[in-house]
């Protein structure tokens, strides 16, 4: 855990709180884009460059564009106040939820990167995939190998979901916004 | 206590982000901001999966899941992050954007039908009908 990681965690927390509190929707969208970018850098630090690239392209890129398009199609309420008023009942409920998670669940979890954690320590799973990937598929990137070869049908299902979402979007909008 | 939090910083961050996302979906009156909250909640879950896959030995981080180009790699070359949670997260990110797109399309329709994006105003308009 380096200084870079601490700085990133602080950046992500600040942008997340700002996203929640900004009253102006456009400001919230822009800050959310910065949040996604910070998250992508944190994924890179946690050794997941594939996830980081996807998050930067889709989370910071496509999501922001879709949100901005929606704002352009609808309204952006003008306000004088910078921040939303705090909703106390919601804050109490959410605070209790987070408190229970941190006090009850956090001590039970393995330290970040502990090789004894179940994901990594079980030789039947992670190590087996890492050992066999090049022999089975000839691809060096294990994420690509799992995505396209070992779990190819899952990826096909994902494409079906995206297709269904495209159809649903067209049906809901009745093509009127594209005219 | 401090050490517990420092070694589990990614999980701690995830819990706080889950709370912020949940708060946005509950407390924000604007439908677009509610959807941003759902997205924030999602990224917290992604962080959990990525943090679970991360591995380090004696404080030295392992490698990204890129294996050496040999048929029988030595196990010392294979101290790499687990690729399986990464693949799940890749799928989840793409499904998440599909979800967001449908949600935003519904929001555009709601606006063209009722002329508002605020939940409280929407309730009043629908109660009058």
TrEMBL record, chain A:
Membrane topology: Multi-pass membrane protein
Stretches assigned to the MrpA C-terminal/MbhD domain: 10-76
GO cellular component, one term: plasma membrane
Location(s), subcellular: Cell membrane
Domain of life of the organism encoding this protein: Archaea
Transmembrane segments: 6-22, 29-48, 54-74, 86-106, 156-173
Region forming the signal peptide: none
Domain MrpA C-terminal/MbhE per the UniProt entry, residue ranges: 124-175
Chief localisation class: membrane
Record key words, sorted: Cell membrane, Membrane, Transmembrane, Transmembrane helix, Transport
Gene3D superfamilies cross-referenced by the UniProt entry: NADH-ubiquinone/plastoquinone oxidoreductase chain 6, subunit NuoJ (1.20.120.1200)
Keyword hit for Nucleotide-binding: no
Protein's recorded name: DUF4040 domain-containing protein
Organism: Natronosalvus hydrolyticus
TrEMBL record, chain B:
GO cellular component, one term: membrane
InterPro entries membership: CPA3_antiporter_subunitC (IPR050601), NUOK/Mnh_C1-like (IPR039428)
Annotated membrane topology: Multi-pass membrane protein
Recorded coiled-coil stretches: none
Pfam families reported in the protein's UniProt record: Oxidored_q2
Transmembrane segments: 6-24, 36-55, 87-108
Main subcellular location of this protein, as a coarse class: membrane
Localization of this protein: Membrane
Keyword Transmembrane helix in annotation: yes
Source superkingdom: Archaea
Keyword annotations: Membrane, Transmembrane, Transmembrane helix
UniProt name for this protein: Cation:proton antiporter subunit C
Classification of source organism: Archaea, Methanobacteriati, Methanobacteriota, Stenosarchaea group, Halobacteria
